[in-house]
Amino acid sequence: MKQRPVGLCGVCGNYAFRTTEIGNACHAHHHGETCSGVIKDASQESAWEACPACTGKGFDQSVDCPQCAGAGWLAV
């Protein structure tokens, strides 16, 4: 199972995996533009569920899982 995210962008939904990212600007790029959102704390275990399509592995038959985009987790 992949590492559970600890943060989530309030604008684009980008996952953060380091606590040092919480409260800072999201640096995800979408269509050539940098997201204007901020990473919010989502470190509670109850904020996430393992992706049911790939059982938290992030891939299905060697390709990124289409449901979780390879993260292995879904925000609840």
Written description of the protein model:
The protein is an all-beta fold and 76 residues long. The strands form four sheets. It has a three-stranded antiparallel sheet, with no helix packed on it. The chain has a two-stranded antiparallel sheet with strand order 3-4. The protein has no helices and nine strands. The protein has strands at 7-9, 15-16, 29-30, 33-34, 39-41, 48-50, 59-60, 63-64, 73-75. A hairpin with a 2-residue loop joins strand 3 and strand 4.
Kindly summarize this structure in a few lines.
With 76 residues, the chain is an all-beta fold. The protein is built from no helices and nine strands.
Helix/strand layout:
Blueprint: E1 7-9, E2 15-16, E3 29-30, E4 33-34, E5 39-41, E6 48-50, E7 59-60, E8 63-64, E9 73-75
Antiparallel strand pairs: 1-2, 1-5, 3-4, 6-9, 7-8
Contiguous low-pLDDT stretches (5 residues minimum) are: none
Strand elements, count: 9
Tell me the fraction of residues in β-strands, as a range: 25-35%
DSSP helix fraction: under 10%
List keywords for this structure.
two-stranded antiparallel sheet; 76 residues; mainly beta; 9 strands; globular
